[in-house]
Amino acid sequence: MVWHHGIVTGVWLNPATNVWQIVVTHAIPNAGVVATTLEGFCEGRLIEIVAQPLSEEHQRLILKTAQANLGKSYTLFNQNCEHFASGGYPLDFPETLHH
């Protein structure tokens, strides 16, 4: 099974529907690092949250890093979704969110 990894980076009020949506930042081929809704990220599949920030400071660092990477290119061997999502975690927390 292949997992897709991302980081929950916030919430967004959709002005068209007036519904709050969870935002996930992740890296995808042909688009690079993007922020999408949780629904767009999981594409109807189940998800699993496998790591959480270790502190508020760690959370700020993860969010700052995710924001700084928006728009960067996707490359299979050094900037894929797993590389992106695990970048803010120590080696014992290699994943954040996957489906």
Radius of gyration in whole Å, from Cα? Answer: 13 Å
User: Would you report the number of β strands?
Assistant: 5
Instruction: Decide which structural class fits the backbone.
Output: alpha+beta
Please, what is the average pLDDT?
84
Q: With helices defined by DSSP (H or I, 4 residues minimum), what is the helix count?
A: 3
N to C succession of SSEs: EEEHEHHE
Largest sheet: 5 strands, antiparallel
Strand order of the main beta sheet, please?
A: 3-2-1-5-4
- For the record, the count of structural domains works out to 1
- Distance between the first and last residues' Cα: 10 Å
What share of residues are in beta strands?
25-35%
The coarse silhouette is: globular
Protein model, in words:
- By secondary structure, the protein is α+β, with helices and mostly antiparallel strands.
- It has one domain (5-98).
- The protein is built from 3 helices and 5 strands, in the order E-E-E-H-E-H-H-E.
- It has helices at 38-42, 56-69, 81-86; strands at 5-14, 19-28, 32-37, 48-49, 97-98.
- The chain has a 5-stranded antiparallel sheet with strand order 3-2-1-5-4.
- Strand 1 (5-14) and strand 2 form a beta hairpin.
- The radius of gyration is 13 Å and the shape is globular.
- It starts with a strand and ends with a strand.
Keywords:
5-stranded antiparallel sheet; 3 helices; single chain; 25% helix; 99 residues; alpha+beta; disordered C terminus
Would you summarize the structure shown here?
By secondary structure, the chain is α+β, with helices and mostly antiparallel strands. 25% of the residues lie in helices and 30% in strands. The protein starts with a strand and ends with a strand.
